Amino acid sequence: MKLDFSPVECCDSVEIHESLLKIVDEKMPPEDELYDLAELFKIFGDSTRIRILFVLFEAEVCVCDLARALNMTQSAISHQLRILKQSQLVKSRREGKSVFYSLADDHVRTIISQGLEHVEE
Amino acid sequence: MKLDFSPVECCDSVEIHESLLKIVDEKMPPEDELYDLAELFKIFGDSTRIRILFVLFEAEVCVCDLARALNMTQSAISHQLRILKQSQLVKSRREGKSVFYSLADDHVRTIISQGLEHVEE
DNA sequence: TGAACATATGAACGATTGTTCATATGATGA
DNA sequence: TCATCATATGAACAATCGTTCATATGTTCA
């Protein structure tokens, strides 16, 4: 990440450059928020997790059923559920031997359906 | 991905299992759509690309200014812009030696701000 | 308590990702 | 045409990711 603010600007427009820095300063969310945001979208960036979420949109489901419904191993699903839970997109509840997972809040639904709209057009 | 639909069901509730498969069949978007959706969110799952998009929310900018504003190499930015363009989140326009990038549509804004809401709470 | 079942988790693996470096392409103006 | 500036891109690298396998933890019931 080498940077050279030499007196001779590239794009030869110092003004645009200045106003750009102003934009970055004023409108760009703080570093940690950007990081969290990217981290959130990263969660949605895997089709296994998306499929899990689509199931949870409709019902509270235990790990074993989730695995069979999505045709994947229990371990793979469990690992992904852990990631979803750590990101607080999903919550769990134990009932006997089983653990039932459900959506943590309805925000997820909105984000995913916005994404779907973009993809479907 | 070995799966064993033995007669003895785990979670011992065949009914829930059946209704789950119904959900998956009826409510789950088709395979390729899920893939595209994950692919879309993957794009947002990197803070460099998010920062680029935040700048483009405010202005049409050339690669060189983008690189300086975000304090990154021209090459790194160019690579990411290519990804953003391939996903049709961003469009470009040549003006002399420079290439100016801008948002392809306002859908992006909505998706990102939904994400921000979730992160900020 | 011990067998059986449901879930969680650590290590290991191949696959994918983002950046860097070097260089190619494209445009301008002398 | 040549030098220069702006951008694009291919190869290489370390880092991260998702799955599998083996196994640990937790719960129930006999």
Strand and helix map with partners:
The structure is a homodimer of 121-residue chains.
Chain A: H1 14-27, H2 31-44, H3 47-58, E1 61-62, H4 63-70, H5 74-86, E2 90-95, E3 98-103, H6 107-120
Antiparallel strand pairs in A: 1-3, 2-3
The structure holds a DNA duplex (30 and 30 nucleotides).
Q: How would you characterize this protein structure?
A:
2 copies of one chain form a homodimer. Chain A contains 6 helices and 3 strands. By secondary structure, chain A is mainly α. In chain A, strand 2 and strand 3 form a beta hairpin. The radius of gyration of chain A is 21 Å and the shape is elongated. The two termini of chain A are 38 Å apart. Chain A has a single domain, classed as Arc Repressor Mutant, subunit A (Orthogonal Bundle). In chain A, strands 1-3-2 form a 3-stranded antiparallel β-sheet. At the A-B interface, helix 1, helix 2, helix 3, strand 1 and helix 4 of A face helix 1, helix 2, helix 3, strand 1 and helix 4 of B. Chain A binds a DNA duplex (30 and 30 nucleotides) through residues 1, 10-12, 42, 46, 48, 62-64, 72-82, 94, 96-99.
Keywords:
homodimer; about 120 residues; mainly alpha; Arc Repressor Mutant, subunit A; 3-stranded antiparallel beta sheet; 3 strands; about 60% helix; about 10% strand; disordered N terminus; DNA-binding
Would you summarize the structure shown here?
Two copies of one chain form a homodimer. With 121 residues, chain A is mainly alpha-helical.
